[in-house]
Design goal:
globular; alpha/beta; two-stranded antiparallel sheet; 14% strand; Rossmann fold; 292 residues; eight-stranded mixed sheet
C-alpha cells in the first residue's frame, strides 16, 4: 500500500485551518515524444526540484520562488547546497546530494556508456510552488528554453516534496508537448497518477530519497539506470514504471509519511533567501549572485 500524499497533506492542513488545496488532476492524455536515438547516444538533461544551488549562487526564498539555478554537472558534492520550503525532506540530501540530485549516478552511466552524455549544466528549482499557474507560465517555459539551448535529447526530472511532484508533472508535460522526451522519477505515486506526466518511474521510498538512499551509490545508480532505460522501453503515454526497490524490511515509515494530523512542517513563506550555511551568504555576495 503506497502513501496517499494528496489526502494526507490536504487533511493535515485542513485541520490547521487552511483551505483545501486543489491538486492538479490531468484529464487529458499527455503528449508523447519518442526518444529519437538510442539512450547510449543521447544527451540527457537533468532537473531537480529540491532547491539545489551551488556554492556562490543565491539560495531560494520560500514564497513560490520560480527562479532557476544552472549548476555545472561537474560540481563536487561538497559545493552543493539546498534550500526548500519543506526542509524536513532535506535531512539526508544535505549530507548526500545524490538522494535528490543524482549527478554521480549520471556520470557513472555516461562512463559505462549506458547514456551518451550529460549536459554540461543541470538545472534546479524550488519545486514547492503552490501556484500551478506560475509553474505553467514561468517555470516550464524557462526550462524549455534552457533545455532547447542545451540541445538535449531527453530530460530526467527528479521531484522531492508532494508539491514538487505536481510541478514536475506540469513541466514534463510542457517539455514533451514541445518535442523533448522526459522521464519523471518520483516517490509519490498518487501525485504522479493525478498529474499524468508522459513517462514516470516510481520508487517507493520516503520523500527526500527520490534517486536513492543516502550514501548508497549502488542503490542510487540502480534507480537512475532503471528510470532512464524506461525512455526506450516504455511505449504508452502516461505509463508509470514501478521499480522493485524496497526502503526497509519494515513499512513503518509509510504510517509516518501518511499522517493526517500534526503541525505545519513547512518553513515560513517569505522572500528572504534561505541559505543552508551562513558562509553561503558571503560566497553569493562575493560572486555577485546576491546583493543582500
Amino acid at each position: 500500500m503506497t502513501v496517499e500524499y494528496m489526502r494526507a497533506v490536504t487533511e493535515r492542513y485542513k485541520s490547521l485551518g487552511y483551505a483545501p488545496y486543489r491538486w492538479v488532476r490531468a484529464e487529458d492524455a499527455p503528449a508523447w515524444q519518442p526518444l529519437a536515438k538510442p539512450l547510449a547516444a543521447a544527451r540527457v538533461g537533468l532537473l531537480t526540484t529540491a532547491g539545489a544551488y551551488a556554492l556562490g549562487q543565491a539560495a531560494y526564498h520560500y514564497k513560490d520562488d520560480t527562479s532557476l539555478r544552472r549548476i555545472p554537472s561537474s560540481t563536487p558534492d561538497g559545493q552543493l547546497r539546498f534550500s526548500h520550503v519543506t526542509e524536513n525532506f532535506l535531512v539526508d540530501a544535505r549530507r548526500d546530494p545524490g538522494c535528490v540530485l543524482p549527478l554521480a549516478a549520471l556520470r557513472t552511466l555516461v562512463a559505462e556508456r549506458v547514456v551518451g552524455s550529460l549536459a554540461e549544466d543541470v538545472f534546479s528549482c524550488m519545486g514547492g510552488v503552490y501556484s500551478q499557474r506560475r509553474v505553467r507560465e514561468e517555470v516550464a517555459p524557462a526550462l524549455l528554453e534552457a533545455f532547447k539551448a542545451q540541445q538535449v535529447d531527453a530530460v530526467l526530472l527528479v521531484p522531492m516534496c508532494p508539491v514538487c511532484h505536481q510541478s514536475a508533472c506540469i513541466v514534463a508535460r510542457h517539455l514533451e508537448a514541445s518535442g523533448i522526451p522526459t522521464m519523471c522519477l518520483g516517490s509519490a505515486l498518487d501525485i504522479l497518477q493525478s498529474g499524468r506526466p508522459p513517462r514516470a518511474a516510481f520508487v517507493d521510498y520516503p520523500l527526500g530519497h527520490t534517486s536513492g538512499k543516502a550514501f548508497d551509490p549502488v542503490d542510487q545508480l540502480g534507480i537512475v539506470r532503471a528510470a532512464l532505460r524506461g525512455l526506450e522501453a516504455m511505449t504508452q503515454p502516461g505509463e508509470i514504471l514501478r521499480l522493485p526497490n524496497r526502503w526497509s524490511e519494515s513499512d513503518d515509515w509509510r504510517e509516518e509519511a501518511g499522517r493526517t494530523k500534526g503541525g505545519d512542517t513547512r518553513q515560513p513563506r517569505d522572500e528572504a533567501p534561505q541559505f543552508q550555511f551562513p558562509a553561503d551568504r558571503d560566497a553569493a555576495r562575493a560572486s555577485g549572485a546576491w546583493q543582500g
